[in-house]
Design brief:
By secondary structure, this protein is mainly beta. It has nine helices and 38 strands. The protein is globular, with a radius of gyration of 26 Å. The chain starts with a strand and ends with a strand.
Amino acid sequence: MLKLTKKEKKITVETGSGKLTWDADRGGEIVEFSCKNEKETHKLLCCRHTICGLKFVIDGISYLLSDTSSKLTVESVENDRIVIKNEASIAKGLIKITQIYQVFEEGAVFCEQSFDVDGNGGFTLSEISMNTFIDVSTVKSARWGYFTRQPWYKRDYSTTHVFYGLDLYKQLDEISCHKELWPLVSIDLGWENTKFFSNKIEFVLDEWSSFNDADTRYTMSYGGKQGQNWTFQWYIFHGTQMRVSGPVRYRNKWGMLFLTSRTQSGKNVDPAYRNNVLGCRVAHCMYPYAQIGKDWPWALMPIKQVACQPPQLFKGNPDIKRVDEVAEFGANVMIIHQFWMRNPGTNCEPPADYVVKDPEWFKAFVDRCHEHGMRVLTYIRGCEQYQMYQTWFEDYMKKDWDGFYPDWNSPHAMGFTKTSLLHWSAYGYFMYLKAMRKRVGTYGAIIGHTGFPFALSQSCIDVALCGELSIRHDELLQLPESTAYYSCLDCSGAHLIAGNLKDRAMFSGKKAAAICTGFGMTGHPVLEPGVPFRKAVAYIKPLWDAMTSIKGNYIKLHNPAYCPTDAVHCDQYWLFPSLWQSDQGKCLLLVTNLADDEKVSGRVVVETNQLDVSGKPKIHVLNIAGTCPQSVEIKGNTLRIKNLPPLSFFAVIIE
């Protein structure tokens, strides 16, 4: 959805996940902003607050852009974006402001912003700031966080990786302030109709640079709650005075993403809600891939940094029959890890070449997956964008069906294009993801892997695979609220990583399986040499057995933990219902107890009139090994649960 409305001096653009209004009488600022999910719209600006709230202090006088008038025009309207231009001047014409906004159907707006001084008159500058106030007076639950431009280091078996620092999962009343321009600041919002968060609002800023090349110590960022608002402020210039007398141009690009849960699939689904792998069951074919030699690029295999994960040296391709093996257990998506490449690389050093090493094997493996109705996703990296020019879809795969598994799906790892302490390639990465979506096709599949919960890297994909970076482990599995936050459930679909490495074992256990069931995920078991797939999938097989009990494709997920729904209600905190709707007129309801150590009783009510089922639907319990059908009694549309064991679930069919 991308809808444009013009009324007098106002321009309104609406997407599936939000609505924004610019007003020429108020400096061309955003004067109305609402976030949307599948059932609700919530206004997030009150009083006379605006976005981005530009303020200048010149010769001791404060000037707000919103106190002026501007020239506001629609430059272009396309299927996936609308371009708006705003031109204004402040302080009696001393500074000219130009803003070019691009609004995208996925739920993103980016603004290229410049301030120009012509040099015809001098002045003393004390402040330039961008001030955003989000109304949180009606919010039930909220967390916020930010990235810093100071480095944070992570060691793994291959090398030491450098990321931006971060401070996430903060309470609303926690205050933070740094003498820098944060590259990213976000807030997760939940309302009365969800347990946790259903919307994520995120602000990004490309450059850490001050006006007229002033020292960056004269910049600042501030965030936290003030009254009924949560606020953040970027101070582009602050803390001293500057005499400006000559021609000056300041340019930066900022953006705002407003996303919600991706719980729908099908041909006519809005991009804001689209999840082409909804309810999928993944087999991640992760065979060893590293190669060592005397010549470039194989001579660049980095030194070993940690003991828990030795270098994974290539030992050959999997037998084609392994596809039959995973199909037998219900897998319908196959991810082929990087061993398929002639040179798989190691996160840009050396760079991978994305050339199929064994074309005959690769084609046979992909064809066998297609025979079983599986999608195939090839391993790629977000930091190696040239992979887009390879010919997978022309030579081996199906567009609008197969897709990509982008590892390092993030611009925040230093080494990605121009990313450094001073530059964050936010807009560039968003456009890369849009190009990736175009490459796989509207109905192709993208499962993105990183370790950080931010909307930018989830904006154009179907599912975020979370859990690799070690600092995320405890937080992901600790509490239901932290699971919802770190899994990106309010801005994407989600999976939990799995595997048998020491730092991932917890994601292949009983609690991880319960979290997947309760939150509407389906796990990510690994297919590796020497290990039968039945062993890898055992931890989550009851869930897979339940998911395969209904034929057809899942087209809708109702989960009141993070997506408002009228279809299912629950009166107990620790009970988590996931209601899956198929395209065959049947529904699957899973109810999970996410308490660690106590049995739970309660009620779940299903509103069958909200479901696409024919006639007078019936609800009956499935007797699946590893589930607890004895814990539920069905009376009409009400499920009475008694003593459901911890980290367990039961399944019912509605037909």
